[in-house]
Amino acid sequence: QVQLVESGGGLVQVGGSLRLSCAASGRTVSTYTMGWFRQAPGKEREFVAGISRSGRSTYNADSVKGRFTISRDNAENRVYLQMNSLKPEDTAVYYCAAGVVHGTSPVAHQYDYWGQGTQVTVSS
Length: 124
Fold this sequence. Notes:
By secondary structure, this protein is mainly beta. It contains no helices and 11 strands. A hairpin with a 4-residue loop joins strand 7 and strand 8 (78-83). The model has no long low-confidence stretch (mean pLDDT 95).
């Protein structure tokens, strides 16, 4: 098993940046494909970005392409989401997830472990 804890959320103005961090404990994170998902009030959870176990392959949702970057540091057992040019529609609770998946995956039910989430609020 692996435990995931997100941090780095907060309140930011439109056009600003935030860097989310996901710290893993238990099993080494290099065993898992990692993903970031988000859920806004009244909406379903949606995929944001995913990264393969090695970090060589990444996949972003169309809504964040060119603005968000996912990365990982397997030595530090951490995954990151750099978010730039933030928009009000990026406001959501952001979740880190780990799964035994080939490559990357935008499908939530393929991820077995989830963090508690961190709130990101973008004000206009």
